[in-house]
Automatic annotation (TrEMBL):
HNH nuclease domain sequence ranges: 192-245
Keyword entries, A-Z: Endonuclease, Hydrolase, Nuclease
Species this chain originates from: Paracraurococcus lichenis
Example GO molecular function: endonuclease activity
Protein name per the record: HNH endonuclease
Length: 297
């Protein structure tokens, strides 16, 4: 098993859905197979689509996941899918280099410039040390939190005792919950997507909560696109199916089941307040699952 980098665009050329699968040509089959059972990081290039002139990509590593299987594409010859699990967005995108430091040493030539040939490979093997370094940078707000709402219970004591490999922490539910919350709150600027309220208490904690759209208990992934920032009352209503979100982000209500007092909270709510970046907005697949399996309207 070998860790790897998988490159995917904001608007992928291939049939990528990073939370579940990565689509690639035979060129990268050996590297992808070597990663089965191990972890990868996703990288977003400068080009946002297959158009040579497209721009807008962050040139940054943005998530990690574990590769489970490689399966052939039954429709497109000489193409394959790498299926993944345990997807988790970074709380901070990690640019491929910081000053003169390259997180992937293979991307740097001997003269210090970028190795464009290596950069052009969409699937690249990644040494353990460099994988660890990328994850530590991506999860810095949770590993060394400056805000009380990003604290992982027991993490400080664990770090004082000894330095665990980062991946051991990433697999723990407490860490994943904290990282998911940090990513969602950042995407929505600590603002409830339904009411528009942005409340920060005296201790610096954002009162808004991070809600999974497709519940974790129903295999909902820990990605910003499966999350919405909601105030406590709205979160309660969303989880119980009293409200939901349509394909066009309009707010749906189960009027016959809404408590009388709750109707006033939703009076001015017409549509979801969305993150500025399109890649952070709720994915239609997760919204559909909520409407079909959670919503009671």
């Amino acid at each position: 098993m070998v860790k790897a980098v998988f490159t995917t665009k904001v608007n992928p050329t291939y049939d990528d859905l990073p939370t579940f699968r990565y689509h690639f040509p035979r060129t990268y089959l050996n590297q992808a197979r070597a990663a089965v059972g191990d972890w990868i990081v996703y990288y977003e290039p400068r080009r946002s689509s297959g158009d040579e002139d497209s721009r807008g990509g962050r040139q940054a590593y943005f998530a990690t996941a574990r590769v489970t299987t490689i399966e052939p594409d039954e429709v497109r010859p000489d193409h394959f899918y790498a299926f993944v699990t345990d997807y988790l967005d970074f709380d901070l995108p990690v640019t491929f280099k910081a000053g003169s430091h390259y997180f992937e040493s293979a991307l740097q030539r001997e003269d210090g410039e970028t190795n464009k040939g290596a950069f052009g490979r969409a699937v690249r093997s990644l040494p353990e040390r460099e994988f660890d370094s990328i994850l530590r940078a991506g999860f810095a707000p949770v590993l060394s939190p400056a805000r009380p709402d990003f604290v992982v219970p027991g993490l400080a004591e664990e770090q004082e005792a000894f330095e665990r490999p980062i991946i051991e922490r990433v697999t723990k539910r407490s860490f994943r919950d904290a990282a998911f919350a940090a990513a969602v709150k950042t995407a929505y600027d600590d603002t409830c997507a339904v009411t528009g309220l942005r409340l920060i208490n005296g201790g610096g904690r954002a009162e808004v909560q991070a809600a999974h759209i497709r519940p974790v208990a129903s295999q909902g992934p820990d990605t910003v696109r499966n999350g919405i920032a909601l105030s406590g009352t709205i979160h309660w209503m969303f989880d119980r199916g009293l409200i939901s979100i349509s394909e066009d982000y309009s707010i749906l209500t189960a009027d016959r089941l809404l408590p009388a007092g709750a109707r006033g909270v939703l009076t001015l709510a017409r549509s979801l307040r969305l993150p500025a970046r399109p890649e952070w907005r709720p994915h239609p697949q997760f919204l559909k699952h909520h409407r079909e399996y959670v919503f009671k309207g």
